[in-house]
């Protein structure tokens, strides 16, 4: 591989799929299917929220942002993986690697904050119903949503700037399936302790604080639900939170495994599995989780499908 001054690597080699040396073309189809389902599922959710006036509420406004983020997260990693499967080589250029690191960090950091904001929305709806319209007015929603995006990009900009200072002394094999901070720090030959410290601080601050805020919100939510006397009322209140709670557990569970690694690291197979769950499988599952048991989303989907059928029938009758 080309090396500049024996320190600056011009491309990296991913080792994540090295355990499947003759199966790259077979892996292409399932990864393509996952990517198409991810984009289509999240695009449907986003479009339904825009089209159906019944979904013009804070909860679904934030959900549309989550759908955008899931498309972005998947698009940062999967297309490059698919191209590498087809070419049967697992490489990425230095500049592409830094770009991938920046955008992946931006979108995943934004998602952590957004999930906390969505927890606040559920807290306001269940614990403070009389003040709900004031606590999450359209202006507040817009400010909160865009603040999460800005926060994610600022956090990632710091990591990327520090990443440009790393030297690799010709070592260019990454024990991962995409470019991320921990694997790059792991192969750097210069002092990367600053990067390690920043990663630790960020994992506690950027992911830990939203997670604790989410846990605190759900403590108050569950306390309020338990005070509801009727079983039907409890079930209805909890059903509005169930989807979000599942997504929160999936996201923060995978993030914890991905960024708080043991000092000895994971085995290559375990690392590949965790990375795939975090950035490839989870974005596909989120729209499914939100749509399968959600009456409003299913109702909006039926309405759109029904209007399309009526339009085609009307058009056919005229012709």
Condensed summary:
The chain has 319 residues and is mainly alpha-helical. It contains ten helices and five strands, in the order βββααβαααβααααα.
Annotation, overall tally of beta strands: 5
Provide the residue-averaged pLDDT. Answer: 85
**At the fourth CATH level, what is the homologous superfamily?**
Rhodopsin 7-helix transmembrane proteins
The CATH architecture term is: Up-down Bundle
Element string (H = helix, E = strand): EEEHHEHHHEHHHHH
Break the fold down into its secondary structure elements and pairings.
Layout: E1 3-4, E2 8-9, E3 11-14, H1 24-51, H2 58-87, E4 91-93, H3 94-127, H4 132-135, H5 138-163, E5 173-174, H6 181-187, H7 193-227, H8 231-259, H9 268-292, H10 295-318
Parallel strand pairs: 3-5
Antiparallel strand pairs: 1-2, 3-4
Question: How would you describe this protein?
Answer:
76% of the residues lie in helices and 4% in strands. Helix 1 (24-51) packs antiparallel against helix 2 (58-87) and helix 3 (94-127) packs antiparallel against helix 8. By secondary structure, the chain is mainly alpha-helical. The protein has one domain: Rhopdopsin 7-helix transmembrane proteins.
